[in-house]
Design brief:
Chain lengths: 384, 599
């Protein structure tokens, strides 16, 4: 069996535009005054056709519209894309179509149309339930707007998730506890709770480098915040199924699980990455980040990707490990060892188990609640 | 052959940065010895490291043809000497080959400690000395005050000091004339048996060992059979040349002349600087007095970061040894660092230069352990042992007492910083020997343990005086003190490469600083790590490196897999720069940085 079948097959579409750039965001997003949605539609449909050529014997499990701000897409564009997808692949019974949305009032006005187009899961970038912090994070919406948008989304889509960022500037442990509890009271079944990460190449990154980004928690407080996040969510029935993702059992993001279970995914749009298996092996695909560059590539060369890279088996082993170990369910040891081409020394596993960082059960290994906060170090040990 | 009266041999004495190499460049250039298009800055500093650091390590020589104002042609032989204290032995032997010196003093800086040390060597060698005030065109130049300083501090008549700017060329003709008129011509007997001094030797990839000589008496010619009087070795002269500074063949060298020869000599170690060279037959009876060979005073371990590079390191050291006979080397095995070499150097700069060359010219990654001096262990059975490595310290029950090398350190410093300098010397177990003033500059002389100086003393001195102090030292012999070996334990395991010899009274303070430093230098692990300093079985300082609490990437989706994989691969490569001690990884820079004292 092809290795990717352990994870499934999904399609990611990248919409690269935002109305403004957030200071912490290092995603591939661009602010444009005018976007020619018809031109984009042609390009997306052409790319869908191209990917379908090589994968149309598969069942498609999920579609994910990410960005950027996909809730700036014209609902007709979303509908055209989903129609074409429906025409090219057999869809899974539990076919999931997620769209990332800004919780602003303008966007909320389009929610119903997205639902009609076939979107059945909305992922909302709420980020904070505190107007001061929303401003600091460069968000354009208010808490009140976000709550209204959330209510509309709740009525429109079967499943709604929302994102919060914590370990913000000047955020006390109790502030976060209150905010998270409030969020949980909004009857959500899926949360992405991200610790604020200052990335290079962002406004926050530059501010931090200049020493102007003050009040961020140190390692100890950040660690405490992570721990209470786990406690509170677990008590509310939304345990972490991934480092930063919490869900009621059964409400996990099926699309993201494909990444973490190291399935195959096609990436369409500027800067989108993919993993696609062909008889020659498993390919890493990538597209240029610039929107115009990507469009022109699709229009002139008939292919938005830069040249593909064939992944060695050991590269695949590393990727499976680094993605899979993020999940509470861990990884299948046999699958990992088959990819790396050798068994891992037993004492390396037992050493980490003795330190209380790793569990090993029924052919799977995973990070314990102690191991998860230091997962990067754990991965380095496992790969050593 | 040149008549004795038409030869002048000289060296240039200066503190680092006072413009010695630039002056040499100007002398070479203005006499047309090197065409302008072939000029590059600091012509005589041929090693990259010399040019980069602006220092001279090896003595160099150049023969300059000069037509003087008296209408006669002269041969001027300049031996350029190193300015740094570590290479002081090079200075003293080069001085013996010439009759005079130019004393170059920066007119804006004044006399510095190295100026003093080198000028005394010139005085010891009975040199005629011509003071030269450089950088006279700088706004900060104070020629009259600097002249007064030369007279007060050194005791030389500075009334006829020559004002110059080596950079702009101002005053260079005056310097050339002064060399001819004020420095003495060499003496010697052309008809006596050959007697030549081996001034220096170096390895050339094409020619083998090149030997620099100064002829005292007699004549040497190409094809001559010669004898090294100390070693007794016999050679045939393959090639005889002078350096201009390119090697230029010459038929013979007579008394007073300086030149080089090759004679199929395989390595520099086969030649002894200061040896007397004569003819195999009808040689001279008495040899020149010769020099004391230089002794390594600073030792450290050098280990390859990647154990697989051990053979490459051995080869690299052997190749360097072809050209540098001044370091010593022996194999060392460390429980912590594996196989490597214990190497002895003339000083810390020498250590750095050799390590840099090994890393750069041979592309090696090295771990350098803490520099140590040679302690003398007086054993209870009367035996005296040299201890080059604290890790080799025998059980104390067999040791009667320990002696350590002391130095006489001379420091020149503006009086604003005097207090800081005195405190630094006191902190390093110094005993004040002298304190005098010349204008607003103080000259401090201290008796210091070399062990306290060898590591970061010079860095600390520069930092407490904002770079205004200058420093030089001489070895003074050994003295007993209460010295103990301090071990460092990481996660309860001793790390031999971190053990040091320390004065008992200072052990607690040093131990505390070291464990605190190591706590900073060792990255957090997934478990907590005790770090201890101990004397024998007694722990004198302890810190605990707490376990890492958080190191996890918040977001990782499909688009991140490639980047995260590459990052992990890079970190895996970075782990190679760490050394594993039991379960703990120690970064290579920790071995040196743990020793640095901030106070």
């Amino acid at each position: 069996m092809d290795d990717w079948r352990h994870g499934g097959f999904g399609l990611y579409l990248h919409w690269p535009f935002c109305t403004s750039k957030c200071p912490y965001c290092d995603f591939n997003s661009h602010v444009a005054a005018q976007v020619d949605q018809t031109r984009w539609q042609h390009a997306y449909l052409a790319e869908i056709d191209r990917i379908a050529e090589e994968t149309d014997d598969r069942v498609l499990n999920t579609v994910f519209f990410g960005g950027g701000t996909p809730s700036l897409m014209d609902p007709d564009l979303v509908a055209a894309i989903l129609d074409r997808i429906g025409a090219r692949w057999r869809r899974a019974n539990d076919f999931e179509v997620t769209l990332e949305a800004n919780p602003g009032s303008v966007e909320a006005g389009r929610f119903r149309a997205y639902g009609a187009a076939g979107v059945n899961r909305l992922s909302m970038g709420v980020q904070a339930l505190n107007d001061r912090d929303l401003k600091r994070l460069g968000r354009m919406h208010s808490v009140a707007e976000a709550r209204r948008a959330f209510d509309i989304a709740r009525d429109t889509f079967g499943r709604v998730s929302f994102d919060l960022i914590y370990a913000r500037q000047d955020q006390a442990l109790d502030d976060w506890r209150r905010e998270l509890t409030e969020a949980l009271s909004m009857a959500v079944d899926h949360f992405s709770l991200y610790q604020l990460t200052v990335e290079e190449g962002t406004v926050f990154g530059a501010r931090a480098a200049a020493g102007h980004l003050k009040g961020l928690p140190d390692e100890d407080r950040a660690s405490d915040m992570y721990l209470i996040t786990q406690e509170i969510c677990e008590a509310a029935g939304l345990p972490a199924y991934e480092i930063s993702n919490h869900a009621r059992p059964g409400s996990e993001s099926r699309h993201n699980l494909i990444y973490w279970r190291y399935g195959d995914y096609a990436g369409i749009g500027p800067g989108a990455h993919g993993r696609l298996t062909s008889p020659a092996g498993r390919w890493a695909t990538e597209a240029p980040r610039g929107p115009e560059e990507w469009l022109q590539r699709v229009e002139t060369a008939g292919n938005g990707e830069t040249p593909r890279e064939l992944l060695s088996s050991s590269d695949q082993a590393t990727e499976y490990l680094l993605m899979g170990m993020r999940l509470s369910e861990g990884i299948v040891l046999g699958r990992w060892q088959a990819l790396r081409g050798a068994d891992i020394p037993a004492d390396r596993i037992t050493g980490l188990i003795d330190l209380g960082l790793l569990w090993h059960s029924e052919g799977r290994i995973g990070a314990t609640s102690t191991g998860r906060p230091v997962l990067n170090a754990l991965l380095r040990e496992l790969l050593a | 052959m040149t008549e004795l009266a038409q030869i002048r041999n000289f060296s240039i004495v200066a503190h680092i940065d006072h413009g010695k190499s630039t002056l040499a460049d100007r002398l070479i250039q203005s006499t047309g010895t090197v065409a302008d298009r072939d000029m590059k800055a600091q012509l005589l500093d041929s090693m990259d490291i010399e040019r980069e650091r602006g220092i001279t390590i090896k003595a160099n020589t150049v023969r300059i043809d000069y037509k003087a104002k008296d209408g006669k042609s002269y041969v001027l032989n300049l031996i350029d000497t190193p300015g740094h204290v570590d290479f002081g032995y090079e200075v003293s032997r080069s001085m013996r080959a010439v009759e005079g010196s130019l004393l170059v003093v920066d007119a804006s800086q004044g006399v510095e400690a190295q100026t003093l040390a080198n000028v005394y060597q010139a005085i010891d060698a009975n040199h005629e000395i011509v003071p030269v005030l450089n950088k006279i065109d700088l706004p900060a130049a104070e020629p009259e005050q600097v002249k007064a300083q030369i007279e007060d501090v050194i005791g030389l008549d500075a009334s006829e000091a020559i004002p110059i700017s080596a950079k702009s060329g101002l005053g260079i003709p005056d310097v050339l004339e002064a060399i001819v008129t004020r420095l003495p011509a060499p003496k010697g007997d052309r008809n006596a048996p050959l007697k030549a001094m081996l001034v220096d030797s170096w390895y050339d990839a094409y020619l083998g060992v090149v030997v620099m000589i100064r002829v005292m008496d007699g004549v040497i010619r190409k094809g001559d059979r010669i004898k090294m009087m100390q070693t007794g070795a016999l050679y045939g002269v393959d090639r005889l040349a002078v350096l201009k500074p390119k090697m230029t063949d010459i038929a013979e060298l007579g008394p007073g002349e300086i030149g080089v020869f090759t004679a199929s000599i395989k390595q520099v170690r086969d030649t002894r600087v200061g040896d007397t060279i004569t003819h195999e037959r009808k040689g001279c009876e008495t040899a020149l007095p010769g020099f004391k060979p230089s002794q390594p005073v600073v030792f450290c371990g050098l280990f390859p970061v990647d154990a697989a590079d051990f053979e490459a390191l051995r080869d690299a050291i052997e190749k360097l040894a072809l050209n540098d006979a001044s370091f010593s080397t022996e194999m060392e095995t460390s429980a912590a660092l594996g196989f490597g070499f214990r190497m002895g150097f003339l000083g810390l700069l020498h250590l750095e230069v050799v390590r840099d060359r090994l890393e750069r010219e041979y592309d090696l990654d090295l771990i350098t352990t803490a520099p140590s001096v040679v302690f003398k262990l007086h054993m209870k059975d009367g035996e005296v042992r040299d201890l080059h490595n604290p890790a080799d310290m025998p059980d104390l029950t067999y040791v009667d007492h320990i002696e350590e090398p002391r130095i006489k350190a001379t420091i020149m410093v503006p009086d604003d910083y005097l207090g800081d300098v005195l405190k630094l010397c006191q902190d390093r177990r110094g005993i004040q020997m002298d304190l005098t003033y010349a204008g607003n500059r103080a000259m401090v002389v201290y008796d210091l343990p070399l062990a306290e100086v060898v590591f970061d003393f010079y860095d600390r001195l520069k930092s407490v005086t904002k770079g205004y102090a200058s420093f030089d030292y001489q070895m003074m012999g050994y003295r007993e003190d209460w010295l103990v070996k301090m071990s460092i334990l990481v996660n309860d395991e001793p790390v031999d490469a971190l053990s040091i010899m320390v004065h008992r009274d200072r052990a607690e303070a040093r131990g505390r600083v070291m464990v605190e430093k190591l706590k900073e230098l060792i990255p957090r692990h997934m478990f907590k790590i005790p770090i201890q300093a101990a004397i024998g079985g007694r722990v004198i300082a302890r810190e605990t490196l707490s376990a890492m609490r958080k190191d996890v990437t918040a977001k990782c989706y499909g688009g991140d897999a490639t980047r995260k994989r590459k990052l992990l691969d890079k970190q895996k490569a970075g782990k190679k720069k760490m050394r594993q001690f039991g379960k703990v990884e120690i970064p290579q820079e920790a071995f040196i940085n743990a020793l640095k004292m901030d106070g």
